[in-house]
Amino acid sequence: MLDVARITKRFGARHALSEVSFTVEPGEVFGFVGSNGAGKTTTMRIVLGVLTADAGEVRWQGRPVDAELRRRIGYMPEERGLYPKMKVGDQLRYLARLHGLPRAEAGAAVTRWTEQLGVGGRLGDEVQKLSLGNQQRVQLCAALVHDPEVLVLDEPFSGLDPTAVEVMSGVLRAKADAGVPVIFSSHQLELVERLCDRIGIIADGRMVAVGSVTELRERDGASAVLDVHGPPAGWAAGLPGVEVLGGDGSQHTRVRLAPDTDDQTVLRAALAAGPVREFRRWRPPLTELYRDVVQAGPVAAP
Fold first, then answer.
1. Where do the domains of the chain lie?
2. Which burial class, exposed, middle or buried, applies to 47 when counting CB atoms under 10 A from its CB (0-12, 13-18, 19+)?
3. Which UniProt keywords apply (predicted)?
4. CATH class of the 2-215 domain in this structure
5. pLDDT tens-digit series, residues 156-206
6. Domain 219-283 is in which class?
7. Which of 2, 130, 162, 243 could pair with 24 as two cysteines, CB 3.0-4.6 Å apart?
């Protein structure tokens, strides 16, 4: 397990991170989301040891992350971390050797990953001559070429076309299925929702929520949509355990039900207000959850 425990980081007077905590289990894809400047990249750099936390600790398999453990982590920075004038094959073999692979194993790994990620025909090209999408594929190869035990990826899907997104998604899911903890940041929330087992939301240097999409959806109670034909205005406002989120007095009413609220009682009240054409649970997309969670602020520390 990768355990990030209450890390804090300041840059001068600016408090970049404040007691950020989360875990990533073996075989789990963890999505790390937040606005620009929220603290995602700073957190990832501390996980890698590129930056040192002012307080807190990062542990892998119960041990503090040191130089030896860092060699077993695959890291993909948001900025291009490749030598632009170096040929793709030479560069990947060089990076694999830096991670300790023998020459023959390094060559075989470069061939395997470049073929799988669709850049096998570009081994003799300089990185700077590749499209941004292919540079991104090569960057992922660099993170994978030494068969890492942990993957930490900062905006790995940036600049990729839909086909490349699917290829990269499949690679990350396959690594997780093999037991590797995978953490990546992204502004593409629809992709995060589809790919990740759990999600961490960071705002202003604080973790404001951690959990699966289902857990985030129901952290304040379940939401529901009712379609009642011709109900009187305010019909749902006085129901115990019911918070009206929108549409009270219209055909489409959205409500939030407190955890102990009997949905059948709500249904009976809706039937009394008019013919019920629909009554279903509302499952907001991650974009809406993200907005609501950030506005609501932090919950109890995970």
1. 2-215, 219-283
2. buried
3. ATP-binding, Nucleotide-binding, Transport
4. alpha beta
5. 998 788 888 999 999 999 999 999 999 999 989 999 999 999 999 999 999
6. alpha beta
7. 2
